[in-house]
Design a protein that fits this description.
- This protein has about 240 residues and is α/β, with parallel strands linked by helices.
- It is about 35% helix and about 20% strand.
- The protein has helices at about 20-35, 55-65, 95-110, 125-135, 170-185, 205-220; strands spanning about 10-15, 40, 45, 50, 70-75, 115-120, 140-145, 145-150, 155, 160-165, 190-195, 220-225.
- A hairpin with a 3-residue loop joins β3 (about 45) and β4.
- α3 (about 95-110) crosses α4 and α5 packs parallel to α6 (about 205-220).
- The longest helix has 17 residues, at about 95-110.
- The radius of gyration is 17 Å and the shape is globular.
């Protein structure tokens, strides 16, 4: 992007569940102090037989956060039921992707967290998964290098700078994330920071995210969230 354009900052947290909820809550408090809303990536099922429908404390916190301005983003359905080392939606044919999306959509509706935004695990989606999304009612797709408005068929290029969810968490990666975020913000681009709630329980990844956010704000990046703006007259599923 051209120098002089206003940078944007999007911060997302994934893997939110009861055993790491306190890490997400503490980080959210730090973001609130900086005037930064979060995009919260939610999956109905996680490993170790986790089920969101049985986790009332996390449900309640997520609903409160959305009321205060955070975004809810569907982040897969059941990664534990996927072949090891594969991201859940990275190789699915359209039919299977649709079934998983429908199941996930029903769960989020049941717990009061329905959303029209979808970020596949590790930000990777097969052609079949992409094709299935509009028919299930999703309007925005968030990929590793792209934000795609499915309703308008337009997209913008920006890369996720993440810790966890398929990305490293070593000190060298954390340092690179901070530098990369500052570079994008200085050039007026969209900075997409992502971290798992589990990694927020470790001092180095957490500090890296805080440093990256502070650096972006220093470069006058505007905090925002993943959002889809409905067209006038457009129906919402």
């Amino acid at each position: 992007m051209l120098t002089g354009m206003t940078a944007q900052l999007i911060v997302s947290v994934s893997g939110i569940r009861n055993d790491v909820l306190e890490h997400a809550q503490s980080f959210a408090d730090d973001m609130d102090a900086r005037g930064v809303n979060l995009s919260l990536l939610v999956a109905p099922r996680l490993k170790d037989k986790y089920r969101l429908v049985r986790d009332e404390s996390t449900q309640d916190w997520l609903r409160k956060r959305r009321t205060s301005g955070d975004a809810i983003v569907l982040h897969g359905y059941d990664q534990a039921a996927t072949k090891r080392r594969r991201a859940e939606f990275s190789h699915l044919p359209e039919h299977e992707a649709r079934l998983r999306l429908l199941a996930a959509d029903r769960v989020l509706e049941q717990v009061g967290l329905r959303t029209r935004l979808f970020a596949p695990p590790r930000w990777l989606a097969s052609q079949g998964a992409v094709a299935a999304l509009p028919g299930v009612g999703f309007r925005m797709l968030l990929l590793n290098n792209e934000i795609r408005d499915l309703d308008r068929d337009i997209s913008s290029r920006s890369r996720v700078l993440g810790i966890g969810d398929g990305s490293p968490a070593e000190p060298w990666w954390c340092r690179g994330l901070v530098l990369g975020a500052g570079r994008v913000a200085r050039r007026g681009g969209t900075v997409r920071l992502s971290v798992t709630a589990k990694q927020l329980g470790r001092s180095a990844p957490r500090q890296a995210l805080l440093d990256a956010v502070d650096l972006c704000l220093h470069h006058e990046a505007t905090p925002t969230i993943y959002r889809w703006e409905r067209r006038l007259g457009a129906a919402v599923a």
